[in-house]
Design a protein that fits this description.
Protein name (chain A): Tetratricopeptide repeat domain 7B
Oligomer: heterodimer
CATH architecture of one domain in chain A: Alpha Horseshoe
Number of strands of chain A: 0
Strand order of the largest sheet of chain B: 3-5-4-6
Helix content of chain B: 40-55%
InterPro entries (chain A): Endocytosis_PI4K-reg_protein, TPR-like_helical_dom_sf, TPR_2, TPR_rpt, TTC7_N
Distance between the termini of chain A: 76 Å
Radius of gyration of chain B: 36 Å
Largest interface: A-B, 137 and 102 residues
Order of helices and strands of chain B: HHHHHHHEHHEHHHHHHHHHHEHEEE
Largest sheet of chain B: 4 strands, antiparallel
Number of helices of chain A: 37
Radius of gyration of chain A: 41 Å
Strand content of chain A: under 5%
Helix content of chain A: 55-70%
Number of helices of chain B: 20
Structural class of chain B: mainly alpha
Strand content of chain B: 5-15%
Largest sheet of chain A: none
GO cellular component, one term (chain A): plasma membrane
Distance between the termini of chain B: 97 Å
Pfam families (chain A): TPR_2, TPR_8, TTC7_N
CATH class of one domain in chain A: Mainly Alpha
Keywords (chain A): Repeat, TPR repeat
Number of strands of chain B: 6
């Protein structure tokens, strides 16, 4: 403070140059200074010595990890200046201290460590004022602590040094620990003061820019820290980690990160934030974590137990510390993933800012550097968010990585996978296409794309294209080759289901069968290959062959739910209903909450044991449904919570279910209930909303009072006016009530929404038959048969219509077909079993 | 099993039973010193038919139920081994299922899914947001945060559930098996720092075996146990990977990397995006960090070096930040825009005239001079042109200025400017010749193109001729005479020629 008060303009200018590191201006200023007062000569010597030393260090920077190289010719001059300044003793105490510190630094550069320590012994560093000191002096003190630490590391413990006077005594372990403690304290103090210095320097600089003329100062360039400050900031935690003292290292990291950032510390912060995140993710767990504002645990599993002797206790406090982030409602992480995420998001924002965009060859290296530092951050983000199942957020983060991603396979692939995991299927497929372009030999990528295409997207043509890619790889695809055939088989199988023409249906079925056979022969130990082959055979009504393969699948994977289900359906197709029911019950013991199985069970029970038992199963289903949603609701708070996703996935699975046919006109109340239950299911399938429970109660009312079933359906119709299922239901209710005309109207509306809904077509055909509009009825039923050629009841109805028209020959043929199909017809269509990769 | 092991285990069984409640905590602390005990217990678990298995499982459960953290961790360290024992038995469809292991696993699960008051435990965490101040940052220093849908929806932190609530389970079945096991692994992972190396190795082994049994890779690994495939779920694999990651970074490099490879192999075959995602990230993040396999037990391979603090990216490279700074500059340049300034455009062009293009060229001038008022030619654009103009003049001014100018114009290179003009519509036929002849590359995105580009005068009054041009001068050194307009299909790049 004293200097500044008396300071003339010249002195202020000198101070500013020293703070901003403009050493080249000093000689000129010193000349002006000496011209004023002779007593300034000593100060001049000090300044000249300093600027020459700094200039030397700028030209010959000390590299991290290398030792100083001993005396140099150029430094002789520096020593002369400093000796002159010190020897005459005319300097003010502040300047005298500065001269000593510079001398010590010079000694270090010349590798005279003991001498340097001697100088530090004379100047008591701990007593130097931090409050009110000019900015450059903060830097000097920080450097001095760092240099002292460096010297202490070089001079073996126990040897005479002025700071540690136990001369002569042999180095005991006690003094080694003391020495280590002293070294770390030096570095930590140096780091703290360095942070303070950088904050102050930046403040001074921005104040300077505001005060000075509008022309921007020429020195706005980034300040560089230099060897000593860099060491001071980082050496302490390096030593902590080297000693296996993770707790202290993490503590030190946090101290540095909590200090308000400056331009100069940005890169350091980015590095440290990343390193701390790495430690949090790689070396810590929930139970060993402590939050940044808590004291570290006294005993931690993180610290190397074999090096217990190296316990370090922080026991200093500075008169002035760097400014920390402060304020109300500061977010402080409470968990290791939280802290890692926060740090990574901060690093990410910095890495993103440094993304090198220009693609000219000169900046190739820069681009690689920026890409590397960003990829590390994105990988760590993936690890942290993946652990917590936050794929939605992850996909957004990785989307930001795309500015680095040009021709970078890893980033593209990770984005694609995150989109896939987040359920953004359409976009995932687009990104996967780019991945295929970048890495055409990897069979996994097109297979992932097929998985999406035949699953949530139902893009069968695209799926076929991707699957062919895998097949075209031939032997190169190795274990994935069978998977490729399975994929294309599934595509064809689904296409067959979708096809409206019988000929193309049969063509696809044939292709699917061929592909599955190929897959099965390539991978005979894969239960899925055998299972899909069996399923395809079942769909083509080759029941005995299908049974053979499904048994094979079950031998490979005894508790596979789909294989068990298929086995039960196959048995039902052979009219072994009791055996089928036994299989279903066995499957249910392994999968008690599987709705598909329960649904099949209901149908089988109604067949074998009568409606009462089936009704009990229905009630059971409702209970499961209820508990399932009660369980899900409380966790609805967050987006993408894994449970919710699971619910959605389950719903998707249920979507494959078909509604019960309502063929008996003399249906009882139980049938109505079944119908309503199905309806309820279809409602919840389409949307799951709070309305479910309200609807449910109405279902029960509907059960006891059939009239109210209509009200319930009305409610549903209000909710989903465009659902063909709802319209179909309303038609059935109208039919039950005997309103043929009304039923016809509902069926027609249902067909206008979904023109290929076979069951509606069949009902409509029957009604038209009743209304004696035979040719129209025949037309509708023929269309229905085109859509689904295995619907035996449609064939039967068609036969009846033809008979009524007097076409006995054709009718007979239809009846025979119906009979034949009925003989191999399962209790529920085989396609109820989901087909997915 | 040796008699000695049996003796150790039996002693352990009886000692705990007679222990008074008050002595439990000292007992828990002393467990560490029983060196022979842990290996003996591993042997008991591995040998499925040992008579000791049932009492051991029972006591391990008692340990867990005690609630003393050390005792709970003692039990947890055997979790990987228990899981493998359970899975291999159930895969082999062995009728002699080790019911006591099942009971132990279910017991731990049922204890862990509820809190102290018996309520379902819901594990949640806060997703930090950069828009809220934290102990490590101030939102203002971060700069603009991308306004994605997600960012808007989560302005501020949000709490997210990552596990729970879970149902109590009485028995294992195919449906809940992996749900329970995944949750148990989650508990194990929460205590990873306390796990011994043996336990971590056992976890890696479990991961490898679960993933490769029944697959061709099993032969490669020469594992001869069960040979049927085990069904897995993606979530289960992700939890395994979390444990493997810890093992990898804490001394178990060899088994760890083998296990990671095996899990990735299986995730590929199963097409599990989640497991692939996390596994790939771990592989790639460890790629650079050379992991040291330390022979000393318990050494961690987390190492930190002093890194240079200065940016390793050269200053004149165009980065996201430099672009952002640039846009900012553009906004405050409002006071320019006189016709004088406009003339500079041609100066720029002259300055950057590629050498070697014929002398038959007259400098391109954008003849918009007398129509400044009708022109929305962005003031920003003009300013930019002016900057560029200065730089070309500065070339003669000395090397220092040239360097500065170079960096300025490098910054310019990415800046786009929009000029909306009702004039300067090129002749339709002139387009091709224009392409060949000019220097500054203008890419024009046509909002609406007049049919056939209409009358080719300087004064096309047509409303349709609104072009936005973006100046693409790629710094002085990088200007190519041939524009690569084929790459930017929606906009047409033309070179402006003198005949405008």
């Amino acid at each position: 403070m004293t200097t500044r008060k008396s300071g003339s303009r010249l002195e202020t200018e000198i101070e500013r140059c020293r703070s901003e590191g403009q050493w080249d201006k000093i000689p000129e200023l010193v000349r002006q200074l000496s011209a004023k007062l002779i007593s300034n000569d000593d100060l001049g010597e000090l300044l000249l010595g300093e600027c020459k030393l700094q200039a030397y260090l700028k030209e010959n920077p000390i590299k991290q990890g290398s030792s100083p190289r001993g005396p140099r010719l150029k430094l002789v001059e520096v020593r002369k200046h400093l000796t002159a300044a010190l020897d005459r003793g005319n300097l003010k105490p502040d300047y005298l201290q500065e001269a000593s510190l510079l001398m010590a630094k010079l000694c270090y550069v010349e590798a005279e460590f003991r001498e340097a320590l001697g100088h530090y012994g004379r100047v008591n560093l701990d007593e130097m004022q931090l409050a009110g000191a000019p900015v450059y002096r903060l830097s000097m003190i920080a450097e001095a602590y760092a240099t002292k630490g460096l010297c202490l590391e070089k001079v073996p413990a126990g040897s005479p040094s002025l700071s540690n006077k136990n001369s002569g005594s042999p180095s005991s372990s006690r003094s080694t620990t003391d020495r280590e403690q002293e070294i770390i304290t030096c570095y930590e103090k140096s780091g703290d003061i360095a942070l303070l210095y950088l904050q102050e320097a930046e403040k001074a600089l921005s104040a300077g820019i505001q005060n000075r003329s509008p022309k921007p100062g020429p020195t706005t360039q980034e300040q560089e820290l230099g060897y000593f400050l860099e060491t001071g900031l980082q050496r302490a935690h390096v030593i902590h980690f080297k000693n296996g003292n993770l707790t202290q290292g993490v503590g030190r990291f946090r101290e540095i990160l909590r200090a308000v950032e400056t331009r100069t510390t940005q890169n350091l912060r980015m590095t440290i934030a990343r390193q701390l995140a790495e430690i949090l993710l790689r070396g810590m767990c929930e139970q060993s974590y402590w939050s940044p504002l808590e004291d570290p645990p006294a005993v931690s599993p993180l610290d190397d137990p074999t090096r217990q002797g190296h316990i370090y206790i922080k026991n200093y406090s500075l008169s002035r510390s760097p400014r920390l982030y402060s304020g109300e409602n500061l977010f402080c992480p409470q968990e290791n993933t939280e802290e890692a995420l926060l740090l990574l998001l901060i690093s990410e924002s910095m890495a993103n800012r440094d993304a090198v965009l220009s693609r000219i060859p000169e900046h190739n290296n820069d681009r690689i550097i920026s890409l590397q530092s960003a990829s590390v951050v994105y990988d760590l983000l993936t690890i942290a968010l993946g652990r917590r199942g936050q794929y939605e957020m992850l996909s957004e983060c990785l989307e930001r990585a795309m500015k680095f991603a040009f021709e970078e396979f890893h980033l593209w692939y990770q984005l694609a996978l995150s989109l896939m995991a987040a359920g953004k299927s359409a976009r995932a497929v687009k990104v996967l296409k780019e991945c295929i372009r970048l890495k055409p030999d990897d069979p996994t990528i097109p297979l992932l794309a097929v998985k999406l295409c035949i699953g949530p997207l139902h893009w069968l043509d695209e799926g076929e294209m991707f699957a062919k890619m895998v097949i075209d790889m031939g032997e190169k695809a190795a274990e994935f080759r069978a998977k490729g055939y399975m994929a294309i088989g599934l595509v064809y199988s689904l296409k067959a289901t979708d096809a409206s023409l019988r000929s193309s249906q049969e063509e696809y079925q044939r292709k699917a069968l061929g592909a599955f056979q190929r897959a099965q022969s390539l991978s005979p130990t894969d239960h899925l290959a055998a299972f899909y082959l069996a399923l395809q055979l079942a769909v083509s009504r080759q029941i005995p062959e299908a049974l053979g393969y499904v048994r094979q699948a079950l031998q490979l994977q005894g508790d596979d739910v789909h294989s068990l289900h298929l086995l039960a359906l196959l048995l039902s197709a052979q009219k072994h209903y009791h055996d089928a029911l036994n299989i279903i019950e066995m499957a249910l013991s392994e999968y008690p909450e599987n709705f598909n199985l329960l649904y099949t069970k209901v149908k089988l029970e109604a067949m074998c044991r009568g409606p009462e038992e089936a009704l009990l199963t229905c009630k059971h289903m409702l209970q499961i449904w209820k508990s399932f949603y009660n369980l899900t609701n409380p966790s609805d708070s967050g987006r993408g919570s894994s449970l919710l996703d699971r619910a959605i996935a389950d719903r998707r699975q249920l979507n494959a279910m078909t509604l019960p046919d309502f063929s008996d006109p003399e249906t009882g109340r139980q049938q109505v209930f079944l119908l309503i239950w199905d309806f309820l299911l279809s409602v919840t399938l389409n949307f799951h909303s709070g309305k479910t429970d309200a609807l449910k109660s109405e279902v029960y009312i509907g059960m006891s009072k059939p009239a109210e079933a209509a009200a319930c359906t009305q409610e549903a119709a209000n909710l989903f006016p465009t659902s063909h299922n709802v319209l179909y239901m309303r038609g059935q209710i109208a039919e039950l009530k005997g309103n043929i005309e009304e039923a016809k109207r509902w069926y027609e509306e249902a067909l206008s929404i979904n023109p290929t809904h076979v069951k509606t077509m069949q009902r409509l055909g029957l009604i038209l038959h009743q209304l004696q509009r035979y040719s129209l009825s025949e037309k509708v039923l023929r269309d229905a048969v085109q859509v689904n050629s295995t619907a035996h009841d449609v064939w039967n109805s068609l036969g009846e219509v033809l008979q009524a028209q007097g076409n006995a020959a054709a009718a007979t043929e239809c009846f025979l077909t119906a009979l034949e199909l009925e003989a191999s017809s399962p209790i529920l269509p085989f396609t109820i079993i989901p087909r997915a990769l | 099993m040796l008699a000695m092991d049996q003796g150790v285990v039996e002693e352990w069984l009886s000692e705990f039973k007679t222990l008074p409640d008050s002595a439990i905590s000292t007992y828990a602390a002393s467990l560490k010193d029983k060196g022979a005990l842990v290996p003996s217990l591993y042997k008991v678990i591995r040998e499925n038919y040992s008579d000791l298995l049932e009492p051991v499982c029972h006591q391990l459960f008692e340990f867990y139920r005690s609630g003393v953290p050390q005792l709970q961790r003692f039990t947890l360290q055997f979790l990987p081994e228990l899981l493998w024992s359970f899975l291999s038995v159930s895969a082999a469809r062995d009728p002699h299922t080790s019911g006591c292991i099942e009971a132990l696993l279910l017991g731990i699960y049922n204890l862990e899914i509820v809190d102290k008051d018996g309520q379902s435990k819901i594990l949640s965490f806060t997703v930090p947001s950069l828009s809220k101040p934290s102990v490590y940052h101030e939102p203002s220093a971060i700069g603009s945060i991308a306004l994605t849908e997600g960012a808007l929806a989560n302005h501020g932190q949000s709490r997210v559930v990552y596990s729970g609530p879970h149902l109590q389970r009485e028995t294992f079945n195919a449906q809940n098996r992996f749900e329970v096991l995944t949750f148990l692994l989650l508990c194990y992972n929460a205590a990873l720092s306390y796990m011994t190396t043996t336990s971590l190795q056992s976890l890696c082994q479990l991961s490898s075996r679960v993933c490769i049994c029944g697959y061709p890779r099993q032969q490669m690994r020469r594992y001869k146990g069960i040979s049927s495939r085990l069904t897995v779920t993606s979530e289960f694999l992700v939890q395994l990977i979390t444990g493997i990651h810890y093992a990898l970074c804490n001394g178990e490099v060899e088994v760890g990397s083998k296990a990671l490879d095996d899990v990735l192999y299986r995730a590929q075959l199963e097409l599990f995006p989640e497991a692939l995602l996390v596994g790939n990230a771990i592989k790639s993040s460890l790629h650079g960090a050379a992991l040291k396999s330390n022979n000393k037990e318990g050494t961690r391979s987390i190492q930190v070096e002093i890194t240079p603090t200065s940016s390793r990216i050269s200053r004149n490279a165009v980065t996201s930040l430099s672009i952002r700074g640039h846009r900012w500059k553009r906004h405050d340049a409002v006071d320019l825009g006189s016709p004088d300034e406009l003339m500079d455009i041609s100066e720029v062009d002259e300055g950057d005239w590629p050498v070697g293009l014929g002398s038959d060229l007259t400098p391109p001038t954008i003849t918009i001079s007398n129509s400044v008022t009708t022109l929305n030619l962005g003031i920003k654009a003009i300013k930019k042109c002016r900057l560029g103009g200065r730089s070309s003049k500065d070339k003669e001014a000395g090397p220092l200025a040239a360097v500065r100018a170079a960096s300025e114009s490098a910054e310019l290179s990415v800046k786009r400017l929009t000029l909306t003009s009702s004039q300067s519509v090129p002749k339709a036929g002139a387009l091709t010749s224009l392409t060949r002849t000019a220097s500054a590359v203008f890419s024009r995105s046509f909002e609406q193109v007049n049919s056939g580009n209409g009358p080719a005068s300087n004064h096309v009054a047509s409303e349709a001729g609104r072009y936005s041009c973006s100046l693409q001068e790629d710094g002085m050194g990088y200007l190519s005479p041939m524009p690569n307009h084929t790459q930017r299909s929606p906009s047409i790049s033309i070179h402006l020629g003198s005949d405008l």
